[in-house]
Every structure is written in C-alpha cells, then in structure tokens.
Amino acid sequence: MTQTALTTVPSDAQAILVLPHLRIQNANAIASALTHGFPSITAFTGLMWALERKLTKAGIPLKFEAVGVVCHSYQEQVSKGYVRSFNLTRNPLGKDGKTAAIIEEGRMHLNITLVFAIAEKDRPTGAAPTLVQGNEAQLAEWASATGNTLAAMRVAGGSILPTRPMPGKRVRPWIAIVPEEPEAADRAFTQWRRQWLPGFALVGRDDVLHQRLTHLHNTSNATQPNATLLDAWLDASRFNYQSQADAEGKLYWGDPQRKKGSGWIVPIPVGYAALTPQHPAGSVLNARDTSVPLRFVEPVHSLGEWVSPHRLHSLSALLWYAHTDSALGLYRCCNYYQQPENLEGDDEAYEYT
Q1: Alpha-carbon distance 320 to 343, whole Å?
Q2: Mean pLDDT, the chain cut into blocks of 10 residues (353 residues total)
Q3: What are the backbone dihedrals phi and psi of residue 88, each rounded to the nearest 5 degrees, phi first?
C-alpha cells in the first residue's frame, strides 16, 4: 500500500495510438498474490516498453508515454459453482513416467482496446515533424506496422488472435493527433471514446483508499485508531453488510460504503516497492539479466474502478503513467481519474456488481 502519487500529468504526448478490440487468449488472470480476475496494469506498461523497443529496431520513431486499457469482454477460465477454482492444464508425463506436478495458473480470454499516448522520438535537427495533421499516410503506415509487430508478441502472457470485422467498429490500429488547444482536445476525445463502447476502462482510485482509511479511524461503532492502509484496502475489497434504515424507517441489509453511484471499485496491484538496496549488475546469482542492476521488490496494491468510457472527460483520466521514486524504492503506475461530483442523484449512475 502507498499514499505516494503525482500531482501533475505528463503533457508531452502528441498523439494516441489505438489498438482496438484485441482478442487475447489465455492471458494471465492472477494479477498478484492477493488479486485475480484481470491482468495487472504493469503487464500493459511492460508491453508498452517492449513494443517501443521493437518499433525502434524497425525504424519507427515513436516514444510511448502512457497506456490506457478498455475491456469489452472477458472469460475467466474457472469452474462454475459457488466455490470456483481455476481450470488447470494436464502436463505430459515426466521422464520417469510419473504424472508431472500441477502448477496452478489462472487463465482468461479477453477482448480489449489499448490506447497509447505517443510522441515523436529522436527527430533530426531541421527535419519536419511527422506527428502532425496532414501526414495521415505515414501515420496509417506506422499504425499498421505496430499491429503487425504486436501480433507476434504476448499481451499479459496471452496470445493474440486475429480480429474479425465488426460492423460500425474500427478494428484496425489507428493514430490520431492530439490537438494543442484544450477545448479541441476535449472535443476530439469525445469522438474517440465512442469507438470504445461498449466496454469499461480501468482507472485508479487512490482517493477511495484514503477515504476508507479515514472511515476506519473515525467510525463511531467500531473505532480503529490503529488501522493501516492494508486494513482499509481489505475493508474496501469486500462487502460489509450492516442493518440500515431507509427514509421511511424500514430496515434492510446493505453496505453503507457502497451506495448508488459510488462506482465499480476493485482491488488492483499498481506496481512494486523495494525490499533491498539496488545490487550492481551481475552481482546476484541466476539473475535473468546480468547487464542491469537488480533489486528485490514486493507488489504495491491500491484500488481501481471500472468506468464506462463515455464517463471519461479527458485523455489523462484514461491513461496510466509510470512513476519511479528511487529514494523511496517505489515503482508504480499512476492514473489521474477524478470522479465527477453529485453522482448520487444521477439517473445513469451504476452500482457495484
């Protein structure tokens, strides 16, 4: 758990690269030791950097700044019933002819849209900019090359399947320029987000975690002055049913912290925190990469929310940015979504599912 967050949003993104309706087979459904149901957001930031390196080798000068994820559908590979368990694969027999040990792994099928904030990379002095209006042919070529490159990669450990044509939907990768004027950028985002319906975008809700901690400290019926962020996270990750009275005095069971319009809140991992000082490159035995320094870490958890794209009013609310604080040993993803006010009386407000 962490309370560290940035207060400013990186604003040097010149365009967005959209990879719509990716069909992912057997993606990793276990995001951390404490959560499951959707890949960690760090899986998509890792994909972002790996994709940038491959495009650089291919001569495409794009720098990836942030990533947004919109989920259109999912199918977790679990058994049905009140108590569910992951569907596991049967491995071949070992060399001794005995049954191989079963290693539990969670798998799920996804249909997602990835939105990358991009900027021009290493433009020679005096060269004309390429991420500008009027350069649609070059941008379309780069978008197509990105889709072809991604097709040979893994997304959160899953394989990418060919996307079928969808009436009224753009299923091919595309690049759009972000206008410099804020009002024009908002109008453009309003048009872009229509392409991501129906679906739900994953955004960060660190503020809900802090509110839940304050509630545990100040609640009158069960004061917890020593509650930590972990206690608040666990409290927000479950249903806490209590007997409540409505306006007419009738009693009913419900969670007082999960009212109408409060959102579809979920526990998520958002990065890593250091457990040890940084070790020099090659000093740790059996390290995966001996050319870079190594540091042992543990996952950092927070709260997220699934929001319909039509409720997002800016590009920064959708995107996740990587933030590194070497002094604190914190490596986490930050999102800058802010819940609109007065959702309590909104007829379109949705409840927890």
Answers
A1: 24
A2: 43 84 92 89 94 92 93 89 79 79 83 93 72 84 93 92 83 91 89 92 91 78 72 86 82 80 88 91 88 91 93 91 89 87 45 31
A3: -100, 155
Helix axes 136-150 and 41-57, enclosed angle (nearest 10): 120
297: amino acid identity, one letter: V
Residue 281 CA to residue 244 CA, distance in Å, equals: 58
DSSP string, 67-89: EEEEEEEEEE-B--SSS--B---
Q: How far apart are the first and last CA of the chain?
A: 24
Angstrom distance (rounded) from CA 337 to CA 351: 18
DSSP string across 292-303: S-B--EEEEEEE
Residues 242, 255: Cα–Cα separation, whole Å: 6
Distance between CA atoms of 76 and 71, rounded to whole angstroms? 13
Residue 77 near residue 87 (C-beta atoms within 8 A): yes
User: How far is residue 203 from each of residues 1, 89, 139, 303, 318, measured CA to CA in Å?
Assistant: 17, 32, 28, 9, 6
Q: What is the pTM of this model?
A: 0.85
State how far the Cα of 170 lies from the Cα of 174, in Å rounded to an integer: 9
H or E element in which residue 212 lies: helix 206-218
- Residue whose token pair is 């990587």: 322
Cβ contact 241:255 at 8 Å: yes
